[in-house]
Amino acid sequence: MNLWAIVPVKPLHQGKSRLAGMLSVEEREALNFSLLWHSLEVLSSVELISRVLVVSKDPKVLATAREYHAVTLHSEDDRLNLNLDLQKADFMAKWQGAQEILVLPADLPLITAWDVYQLIQKAQKPKAMVIAPDRNRDGTNGLLFNPAEGSRYSFGPGSFERHLAFAKKNGYRVEVYESETFALDLDTPEDLSLLYEKDPNFFQKFAKPIRRNV
Ligand SMILES: Nc1nc2c(ncn2[C@@H]2O[C@H](COP(=O)(O)OP(=O)(O)OP(=O)(O)O)[C@@H](O)[C@H]2O)c(=O)[nH]1
Ligand SMILES: C=C(OP(=O)(O)O)C(=O)O
């Protein structure tokens, strides 16, 4: 087993733009940094993961990833394109020996190492795809390919159904990973309120990287 986790990250000042009505650009930048830090903390404590690969245009994101011994890929395209960045990261991971690939967006504030471990367990027997939907069963909050060969990314609105359809069409055993913690990605003001309810301490944790930056 040689499982790589790929984490795509938008530039910190651009991410979470749907929260612009509630948070200033500085607050969103701090929140994005905190979410990145949380993802790296979680992934680096999952022993089943051989390497973490972070793909981003943002040098600060990549420098932080390297502090966690992640492999980094600098996306140099003019425009933002999540699926293209994932495709490039996927190629790099396979070139360096990845046999299984897990894509984990960096906006899952509630996930723990145990959640990620459980998701991975579902993919033990190939040929499998594990798909973790968001709470509306619209987006994809985790996607694992075992084997990595033949992987394909179709993130964006409605991606859960597209990933399911891809799996069925291509002969994968599909495991839908239903998890309350995985299901909460931070996109909308409603998601932010839910996070306040479920983990008010998250916002104290997220003061930490703000302090690190000043
Ligand atoms: N490398 C890379 N990562 C991206 C890109 N677009 C989104 N991401 C990351 O992909 C994950 C899921 O993205 P979204 O849920 O749409 O988050 P977001 O783009 O910050 O949210 P909005 O700005 O509100 O659309 C997050 O970790 C983002 O940082 C991209 O073009 N390139
Ligand atoms: C890009 C995605 O994220 P979101 O729907 O959270 O923007 C996705 O789930 O495919």
TrEMBL record:
Corresponding gene?
fbiD
Q: Which processes are annotated in GO (biological process)?
A: F420-0 metabolic process
Source organism: Anaerolinea thermophila (strain DSM 14523 / JCM 11388 / NBRC 100420 / UNI-1)
Instruction: Give the organism's phylogenetic lineage.
Output: Bacteria, Bacillati, Chloroflexota, Anaerolineae, Anaerolineales
Q: Could you tell me what this protein is called?
A: Phosphoenolpyruvate guanylyltransferase
| Major enzyme class | transferase
The UniProt keywords, alphabetically, are: GTP-binding, Nucleotide-binding, Nucleotidyltransferase, Transferase
The cross-references to Pfam families, in alphabetical order and at most eight, read: CofC
Q: What is the protein's known function?
A: Guanylyltransferase that catalyzes the activation of phosphoenolpyruvate (PEP) as enolpyruvoyl-2-diphospho-5'-guanosine, via the condensation of PEP with GTP. It is involved in the biosynthesis of coenzyme F420, a hydride carrier cofactor.
Q: Which family does it belong to?
A: Belongs to the CofC family.
Q: Which HAMAP family match?
A: CofC (MF_02114)
Q: Which reaction does it catalyse?
A: phosphoenolpyruvate + GTP + H(+) = enolpyruvoyl-2-diphospho-5'-guanosine + diphosphate
| Any one GO MF annotation of this record | GTP binding
Q: What is its EC number?
A: 2.7.7.105
- Pathway assigned to this chain's UniProt record: Cofactor biosynthesis; coenzyme F420 biosynthesis
